[in-house]
Each structure stands twice: as structure tokens, then as C-alpha cells.
Amino acid sequence: MSSLEWAECQLAEIELLMSMFPTQEELEITDQLALAELREYVEGSDTAGSPPPSRPQFLIKQKLDTASMDMRDVILSCAYPSEYPSVLPEITVRCSDLSRAQQTQLHGDLNSYLFENCQGEVCVLSAVDWVKDNLQLFINKSLSAAPTSKKETVSSHSEEVFSRLWIYSHHIYNKTKRKNILEWSKELGLSGFSMPGKPGIVCVEGPQSACEEFWSRVKVLTWKKIMIRHREDIPLDHQGEDSRTVEDIDSLRKFTGFEEAMFDPHGNRGNHMDLGQLYQFLNEKGCCDIFQIYFGIEGR
To answer: Which helix (H) or strand (E) holds 276?
Structure first.
């Protein structure tokens, strides 16, 4: 699909959602400027004719029945990568009845469902329906599972899908953020790299739940702009065979460990990297196609 076709699908889905959830209490567009830019691009009123730099983000708010007959507030926080629906949207589900472990597992199961059933199609409504159908199961696990069994459940489930997240930030300068990125990736057993400067790039790969945990920590820091530019989710075939699954995950990694990568810093503040060297680095790792996704041009 072309950039325009991606944008047309995104705008059509948002307009459908706005008709289905017409009030602010049901659907909240958190980035109105991005929606306006998307509409201008699709309708051709943007004279520059280039894709907008960011895509809309929104919250879908639902009140769902539970087994206790109580109504539970559930919020789906949604953000579109530029290439959606060719790649999955970024969806985070928030519900006060879910433990952190069950929330992580829910996100993993939801992404696996969307990957298997909705790849290449708009899927936010499918995600809403899936959450309605499955939320109670995760609430029950949060209430009844002992801490040890919850840990085992999350551990086994986290290895069912291998993920690689390509994160884009307007810039990464702050030393504390750079330290957090390095420490969190190592704590969670993720490989990849981070490139500080302007723009900032982070790639993490490993078990899906660990990638989601990393992203949940990073995105709540203060950023001018940060988003998942592209993601790769690969279901594993050997569920329940722990040693074999770990081998599968390691065989899919394109990076050894996690590092902060610098590519001939230059500029007045030394905050710009040599993108040619970045392309060569990605090419050596078998990821050169990502360069065009980030920058819209082919590297060389």
C-alpha cells in the first residue's frame, strides 16, 4: 500500500469510530492537530502533498459488565503507526481490575489475535470486541491466581510471540533517559540498540511481553514526540517447550545484547548522527528496509 492508501484507511476508520462512539465520554481524540493534518492530506488540501509527520491518537472508553454484575471502566488507548493497517496499531488496555501481570498478558494475547486475524486490515473495532469478550477471563486470573502461578503464567506466555519494536523520537538528549533505556533493556532481557541525538531511534527485540513492558515505561517519560514507527511480531511454534522456545527467540534476534550506538556525531551541539553510517549499521544487521520506513528515502 502507498502512504496515501494507509492514510485513507486510517481516516475512514476514525470516522467510523466517531459515528459509533459519538460522545467525548466514549471516544476522545487526544491529538486533534494530527487528525486535521491527516484529513488535509487525504482530501488533497495539503499543498505540500507529503504524509503528515504524526498520526492521530485516541481513547475508546467502555463500561463493561463483569461476572459480579458490576460495570467496569475500560479504556483502549490507540495510536496509528504511519504504515497502519499494513502493521498493527499500538493499543494499550487500561482497567483497574487487572494486575500488572495480567495486563501484560492481555496485551500479548490481543496482539497475537490481531496478528493472526487482522493483518493488513483496519482492526480497532476487532480489538474492542476482543476485549469485551475476553476481559473477564483476565480479571478472574488477577483475582484468583497466586503470585507464583501468575509469574509462571506470564513467563510462559511471554515467550509465545517474538517482537521487534522500532521506536522513533524527535530527539534523545537527556542522560537520565539514555541511562533508563540501557538499564531497562538489559533488565528485561532485550537486545537491540539506541541512537541518541536528533532524531532518536530505539530498537528492542525479544519476548513480546518484555517489549511491551519496555515501551510502557519509555512512553510515559516526557518527550516532545515518541512513537512506535514499525513493529514486527512473529508467533513461535513451540509453546510449552521452554528450552526450545528460548532457542527460537535467540535465533530470531538480529542484535547481540543492547548498546547505545553513535555514528560520527556532528553539528553545533554534536546531536546529529551520520545517517549513512546508520544505514550501513542496519544493513549489516539485515534491517536496511527500516531506514526507508524511518526517513522515507532509500539508504545507500
So the answer is: helix 275-284
Nearest to 101 by CA among 158, 160, 150: 150
Q: Can you tell me which residue has the cell 491529538?
A: 31
CA nearest 113: which of 240, 233, 241, 205? 233
pTM: 0.51
Task: Work out the angle between the directed axes of helices 147-158 and 208-218 (0-180°, nearest 10).
Answer: 100
Strands 71-79 and 226-235: unpaired
1 closest CA partner among 119, 111, 91, 117: 119
- b/e burial code for range 13-41 (CB count within 10 A of at least 16 → b): bbeebeeebeeeeebebeeeebbebbbeb
In 3D, which of 145, 142, 135 has the Cα closest to residue 72? 135
Provide the residue-wise pLDDT of the chain in tens; the chain has 300 residues.
888 999 999 999 999 999 999 998 999 998 888 899 899 999 886 555 678 877 888 999 998 776 555 678 899 989 888 889 998 888 888 888 887 778 888 888 898 899 889 888 999 999 999 999 888 888 777 666 545 444 444 444 434 789 999 999 999 988 888 999 999 999 999 999 999 988 999 999 999 999 999 998 898 888 888 898 888 988 876 544 555 556 678 889 999 999 999 888 876 666 778 889 999 999 999 998 898 888 776 655
Q: C-alpha cell of 285?
A: 544487521
In whole angstroms, give the CA distance from residue 299 to residue 51: 19
